[in-house]
Write a structure and sequence with these properties.
It is built from four helices and no strands. With 133 residues, it is mostly helical. The structure holds adenosine-5'-triphosphate. Keywords: ATP-binding, Cell membrane, Kinase, Lipid biosynthesis, Lipid metabolism, Membrane, Nucleotide-binding, Phospholipid biosynthesis, Phospholipid metabolism, Transferase, Transmembrane, Transmembrane helix.
């Protein structure tokens, strides 16, 4: 039997659908930012790091490392928030697997944060030390 193409119920143009997807993504970031203290901390840290980056006139390579480090922490924290929400939805009661999912997701944030700290220490450490000496 010849497969029949599935009709696409979404009649909006590709551009409109892409724009809507971006809207959903930004709403997700905003929702997470409003509810998660850790993300608010990351937002403050990001503003400080970018400010320091301009102050110390980082090189292009250093900006790239900072961008990857900051982006990785935000990504891990957003995924962690999503996993927490989904876990609370499907397993509001105590379950070892629910605990495991949350702990592993939190572990991802910790790994990203430690890596970002190492990048930050290498890039900003010597410059801050030179300032105070
Ligand atoms: N439904 C559950 N079943 C089993 N253990 C759970 C469950 N919910 C939470 N836990 C355990 O409690 C820990 C804390 O969970 P909680 O939902 O309070 O996240 P959290 O640490 O407050 O996260 P955050 O502070 O990033 O919002 C989890 O990492 C997990 O070990």
């Amino acid at each position: 039997m010849t497969p029949v193409a599935k009709p696409n119920p979404d009649k909006r143009s590709l551009l409109r659908r892409r724009a809507a997807s971006f809207g959903h993504a930004f709403r997700g970031i905003w929702l997470a930012l409003r509810s998660e203290l850790h993300l608010q901390f990351h937002a403050a840290a990001t503003v400080i790091v970018v400010g320091l980056g301009f102050y110390f006139e980082l090189t292009a390579t250093e900006w790239m490392l900072v961008a990857v480090a900051v982006g990785t922490v935000w990504t891990a924290e957003l995924v962690n928030t999503a996993i927490e929400a989904l876990t609370d939805l499907v397993s509001p009661e105590y379950h070892p697997l629910a605990g495991k999912a949350k702990d592993v997701a939190a572990g991802a944030v910790l790994v990203a944060a430690v890596a970002a700290l190492v990048v930050g220490l290498f890039i900003f450490g010597p410059r801050v030390l030179a300032l105070v000496h």
